[in-house]
Amino acid sequence: MTLSQLQKAELLNALHVPGEPLIVTNVWDAITAKIVSEAPGVKALATASHSISNVRGLQDGEGLTVDEAIIAAGIIAHAVDLPVSADFEKGYSDSEAGITRNVRRLIEESGIVGINIEDSIGAPKAPQYDIATAAARVAAARAGADQSGIPLVINARVDTLAGGGDWDEAVARANAYLGAGADVIFFLGLTDEDKVQRALEQVNGRISVIGAPGLVPLARLAELGISRVSFGPGTLGLTLAALQNAATNLTALGEYPAELGFKFEL
C-alpha cells in the first residue's frame, strides 16, 4: 500500500518508541535506499549528510548547496515507500527565516518526513550556537513544517558532549529544543550506559543516539529506553570496507566472493 506523505510523517513519529527503538540504517542514494528498505524488519530510512557529500567528492558540513541537498533527499525518498528522514545539517541558512523557507522546500519538493538539524556553528562539533539561538532555529524548522501541513519529525542534535562541553548544558539544550518544537533529541556523546541512563532521566522527551562498535550494544539501548538508533556515515564505511576487502582479494587472484553475485535493480 502506498502511503501519503502525511501518513509517512505520522508513522515515522509513531515508530520512535522508548524501549523499542527505531533502527535506521543510514543511506545515501536510490540504490542503497531500496536495498536497505527490502531488508526484513526495516520500517524507515535516514540519510547521512556525510555520506551524501563524500560520494560526490565533497566534504561534510554543508558542502552541498540547499538545492543539491533537497534533490539528493528527493532521490532517496522517491526510491522507496517508507518514511525517510533527511540529515539537513544546519538548515542551509544563517537566518531563522531561511531555515523556515528551506525546511518547507525540503518537505514539499522531496517528500521527506523527518529531519536532523544540528546546533553547531561549524565543523567539528564546536562551537555551538548559544542555546536561545539554537532553540530558535529548531522553532524555525517547525514553522516550515507547519507551513507545509506535514507533521515533520524533528530530531534535534545536541553536540555539546561530542564537542567537549558540559553535561548540564547538554541537558539544558535538549530540553530547550524540545520546548521549541523538536520531537526527538539526537544526543551525541552518550558513550556508556551511565550517560544514557542519566540522559533518559533528565531529558523531557525521546532520545536518539548513534550506534557504533565500542558503544552501548543495541539490545541494551532498547532495555534502557532509547527511542532511535542510527549509524551516520558508519554504514558507508561498512560498505567501503567490504568493497576494499573484495578488491584486495580479487586483485590477489583469490576466490570470487559470494556477494559478487548479489542481484539488485532499481
For this entry, give a set of tags.
single chain, 266 residues, TIM Barrel, eight-stranded parallel β-sheet, 10 helices, 12% strand, globular
What does this molecule look like?
The chain has helices spanning 5-14, 30-37, 49-54, 66-77, 96-110, 131-148, 167-179, 193-202, 218-224, 234-251; strands spanning 22-24, 45-46, 84-87, 114-117, 153-158, 184-187, 206-210, 228-230. With 266 residues, the protein is an alpha/beta fold. It has one domain (9-237): Phosphoenolpyruvate-binding domains (TIM Barrel), CATH 3.20.20.60. An eight-stranded parallel beta sheet has the order 1-8-7-6-5-4-3-2. The longest helix has 18 residues, at 131-148. The radius of gyration is 18 Å and the shape is globular. The protein starts with a helix and ends in a 15-residue tail after the last helix. The mean pLDDT is 97.
Secondary structure elements and pairings:
Layout: H1 5-14, E1 22-24, H2 30-37, E2 45-46, H3 49-54, H4 66-77, E3 84-87, H5 96-110, E4 114-117, H6 131-148, E5 153-158, H7 167-179, E6 184-187, H8 193-202, E7 206-210, H9 218-224, E8 228-230, H10 234-251
Parallel strand pairs: 1-8, 2-3, 3-4, 4-5, 5-6, 6-7, 7-8
Helix pairs in contact: 4-5, 5-6, 6-7
